[in-house]
Amino acid sequence: MDMKKTILLNLDNRISAFGIDISDFSIKIAKLKKRKKGFELESYNRSSIPKGIIEEGEIKDKKKLSDIVEKTVNTAKGKSIHSPYVVSSLPEQHGFVKIIRLPKMNLKEAKEAIKWEAEANIPHSLEDVYLTWKILPIDKKENHVDVLINAVPKEIVDSYLDVLSLAGLEPVVFEIESVATARSLMEDGYAKKPVLIIDLGASRTSFIIFSGREIRFTSSIPVSNYQMINDIAEKLDVDYEKAKELKFSIGLDKTKESGRVFNVLSLSMNALVDKIKDCIAFHKNHNYQDDCDDIYKVILCGGGAYLKGASDYLSQRLNVSVELGNPWVNVLKSKGKPPIIPYKDSLAYSTVLGLALRGADPDLDYL
Prior knowledge:
The chain has about 375 residues and is of the alpha/beta class. It has helices spanning about 5-10, 60-75, 105-120, 155-165, 175-185, 225-235, 240-250, 260-285, 310-320, 350-360, and strands at about 20, 25-35, 40-50, 55, 60, 75-80, 85-90, 95-105, 130-135, 145-155, 170-175, 190-200, 205-210, 215-220, 295-300, 320-325. The chain has two domains: about 1-90 and about 155-185 and about 330-365, 2-Layer Sandwich (Nucleotidyltransferase, domain 5), CATH 3.30.420; about 185-325, 2-Layer Sandwich (Nucleotidyltransferase, domain 5), CATH 3.30.420. The radius of gyration is 20 Å and the shape is globular. The relative contact order is 0.17. Residues about 1-15 have low confidence and may be disordered.
C-alpha cells in the first residue's frame, strides 16, 4: 500500500470506518453512524497498554500492540465492529503543524514555494516525512496567501501502519491527534475568536490554538495525568490507586488534607501555566491573521481535565475563561437517548470521537 496515498485518501461514502486513538498507555476506539441530524455512537472500547510497548509515541513492540488492538476491536461495547477500515491517530509529539506565509501566486508556483518553505521550517528532510498542506481562506484583496503545512516522519507513520495491518485493519486516513481533538470540540468546526484547547493526557499535555476553521498552532509538554498521580504517591507516601483518588476527589482544594495534595499538584500546574502563557504569547506575536484577536477561551479535555479545581485554578492564573470541553457537540445534534459512553468519562474520548466523526462523514476533513 502506498502510504502517502493512504494519508491523503478521502473516505469513500460507502466505506464504514471507525476511529482508533493509540497513545502510550491506552487504546480507544469509537464508531459513529450518521443520522438525519447528527450521529449515533454505535460502538466504543478502551484498553490499557502496558508500559514499554509505546514510549513517547514510538512503538517498541509491534506484535504485542497489534494483539491489544485486535482484542480491543473484537470486544467493542455496543454493536460489534465488522469493518476493517479505520481513521487512526498519530502521536502529537511527532507531528509538525505550522502556518507559512507566501506572496500571492498561481497554484503551480505555490506548490514549489511550499516545498522550499517546508524544507526550511520542518526539522526533518522532506524525504523523511509525509507532508500535506492546505491554502487557508483569505480576503481576495490581500497580496499574500497563508498555507497550513502538516508533516509526520515516515518512520512513525509506517510503524503505526504495520501495527494496524497486523491486527487486520486498513487505515484510510491518518491524523495527528490535535486535528481530531479540534474536530470533536469545535462546534461545526468553527471558532469566531481564537480558542486554546488543552488536552491533559496520560503521558503528555497538548496545546492547540484553533481560530476560524483551522488549527493555528500546536505544541506539547511531558506534564501529564500519570506524572501528577505519581508525584502524589511519592511525596505523600501512598499507593498509586490512593494517589489517583486524592487527585480527583481533592485535587486543587487547599482546604482539604491540610493543603498537602494542592502543594504537590501546584508544581505541575505552575509548569502548565507557564507553557500556556508561552502559547498565548506566541499566538499574539506570530499569528498570521491580520485582525488578530487574543485567546478568548481555554477548553480542557482529556482524562486529566477532571482534576478537581483545575478550571478555576487556571482561570485565576491566566485571567481568561476556562471550561471543560463537550466532545458530543458535533455528535448529538438532536434530542435522543444519551450516548453509551457515560458523560463523566467523555472527555477522555475527545480525540477518538473526532476520528470517528471523520470516519462517519468524509466531509469533516477541515485540515
